[in-house]
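Go through this fold for my students:
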Amino acid sequence: EVQLLESGGDLVQPGESLRLSCAASGFTFSTSDMKWDRQAPGKAREWVAIIRSDGSTMYADSAKGRFTISRDNAKNTLYLQLDSLRTEDTAMYYCSNFKRRGQGTQVNVSS
């Protein structure tokens, strides 16, 4: 059974940083493309960052220069480093292997 368990969400102030983690199991993580999506209240879900099995990355315009996606295949774990957070980054963040997604971790950015 595929399981994706996100963690690391928190309430932070604008300009601060967070590191999200996603523990994956039930599939071959090392050969899977992975991504982070987010969904803010009242808004459609949007993709944030993608990391392919070869390590190449892509970022949504809103994430470029501030967020960094990475993976540790030895630990079957996906990460998203969030820097210079803004109030508009407030959302539930989900990791996905493009077939399933986890339950999400909540990021709140507020002064």
Summary: The beta strands are 3-7, 11-12, 18-25, 34-39, 46-51, 57-59, 67-72, 77-82, 91-96, 105-109.
